[in-house]
Amino acid sequence: MPVKLRITLLFCLIVFVILAMVCATAYYFPYTARTNNIKTRLTNRAITLARLLKQSQVFDRNLIRKIDSSTSNNLKDQTFQAYDYRNEKIYSYSDAPSDTLVVDTAILDDARIKGTIFFKLGNKEAVAYHYTNATTRIVVITAAYDKDGKANIRTLSNVLRFSFFAGIIIAFVGGYFFSGRLLRPIKEIADDVNEITAQNFARRISTGSVKDEWHYLSETLNQLLNRLQDSFETQRRFVSNASHELSTPLTAISSQLEVSLQKNREAQQYRIVMESVYQDVRHLSKLTQTLLEFAQASGDAGGLNISPVRMDEILMSLPGEMKKSNSDYLVTLSFNDMPAEEEKLIVFGNAELLFTAIKNIVSNACKYSEDHKAIIRLQAEEETITISITDKGMGIPEPELKYIFQPFYRVNTTSHQSGFGLGLSLAYRIIKLHKGTINVSSTPGQGTEFVIIIPTAKF
Question: Which parts of the sequence belong to the HAMP domain (predicted)?
């Protein structure tokens, strides 16, 4: 069932319940008032008749009938009857001479017990009133047809029925119209989304000027599209740069082998070519390994081997690792205010990836510093571990700071150094995978500081 129709039916159901309650209330109180009114009038008439009958020496039966016939009270087909204690009829009057009431003795007995009872005889409403004094015990029955009262109730009932059904029809038509108006922005948003393709990915959904829920939905979808566009652009640049980086050593290898095979050469010449090819193969192998690590760090943390990792142990292995890669590299560790609790130094993560991330940053710090020195500081707090890596190198220009974590991006001042431009990007993705953050501050000519913040493990 379409949402538009479902909203309309739900709206009609609510209106149905409301109208039913209003109409029932509007009918109930006038109906009750009319019933109470006819009861009161018939009871008063019964009391008056009983008092007249008690004074038989003053008012004889014929005089009482004349009084009854001359009394005007807007009631139709009046019938008055009186019964003594032996249930014998002692008085009878009717507007129509042939009209009479057949009263069951059970009603008379009930009236003698309760005093006054209200009942119906055919289309008439009646009251049985038991009157007693020292000398008289009679039951007076007054009955009449409330023509005007019932006519008013019928008129009210017809008006309420018409209003009820007219209200339901109006609610359905109005609900169908307004639900269409309500859902129109959804259709417009869907139409805008359908027009967004890979060739037209820069298009965005119109948010309108009204700050409502549809505006919020449009803004949210636009933000999603912005993130997707950034991801696609990053992927496109990554594929392009990776293809270039992979093709360069492959082209060099192919060219050297092709040239060396064009004619016979001496063994020494072949050795020179093989050494050059070997260097290119090592470069290609290192690039491939880096790309595999990058792909692993770009995945989901759920696919990693997660275990408790002590960050101080990872940091303490870095000085020796840097010495292996270059004997000139020097790493200084500074562990201030080490906590007594071991748990404050533990994070949940992958030890190999965390080691790779920090090693890449430390390697850059040593590589681009004249003294080839990096200072690592560790500070454990209540819920986080902060690692700062400082060098006194050439620094990074302010305009380039926002690009340094992009794959294959290299600062212009470091283009003469060997590398792929993947180290910082890989470190950034690994730290993000561990729900951490990396902040960088740099002053050209004075040095750079990277600050890594990782949440501690919750045991």
Answer: 180-233
Q: Extract the tokens encoding 396.
A: 């990074």
In terms of domains, do 264 and 342 share one? no
Residues 285, 292: contact at Cβ < 8 Å?
no
Whether the CB-CB separation of 125 and 38 falls below 8 Å is answered with yes
**pLDDT digits 0-9 by tens, 56-67:** 654 555 666 666
Query: Cα–Cα distance between 63 and 69 in angstroms, integer?
Result: 10
Please count the structural domains in the chain. Answer: 3
Reading phi first (left if > 0) and then psi (alpha if -120 to 50, else beta), residue 227 is in: alpha
CATH code of the domain covering residue 72: 3.30.450
Is residue 400 a part of any domain in this protein?
Answer: yes
CB 322 within 8 A of CB 364: no
Query: Are 231 and 313 found together in one domain?
Result: no
Pairing of strands 373-380, 384-391: antiparallel
Residue where one domain finishes, among candidates 297, 322, 356: 297
Least Cα distance to 46 among 145, 131, 148 occurs for 131
What is the domain extent for residue 231?
213-297
Neighbouring residues of 193: CB distance < 8 A, sequence distance ≥ 6: 205, 221
Residue 175 lies in a domain: no
Answer yes or no: is 186 within a domain: no
Closest among 307, 289, 286 to 297, alpha carbons compared: 289
Q: What is the mean pLDDT of the chain?
A: 79
- β-bridge pairing 89-94 and 346-349: unpaired
| Residues 410-455 pLDDT 10s | 665 554 455 556 678 778 888 887 888 888 888 888 888 889 998 8
pLDDT level of residue 5 (50, 70, 90 thresholds)? confident
Q: Are 288 and 317 contained in the same domain?
A: no
Tokens 């002692």 map to which residue?
90
The span from the CA of 125 to the CA of 122, in Å, is: 8
Where residue 407 falls among pLDDT bands split at 50, 70, 90? low
Kindly state the helix (H) or strand (E) to which residue 450 belongs, with its residue range. Answer: strand 447-455
Whether residues 348 and 289 fall in one domain: no
Candidates 448, 452, 421, 282; CA nearest to 353 is 452
The Cα 247–Cα 250 span in angstroms is 5
Q: Domain ends where: 239, 263, 297?
A: 297
Instruction: Look up the pTM and report it.
Output: 0.50
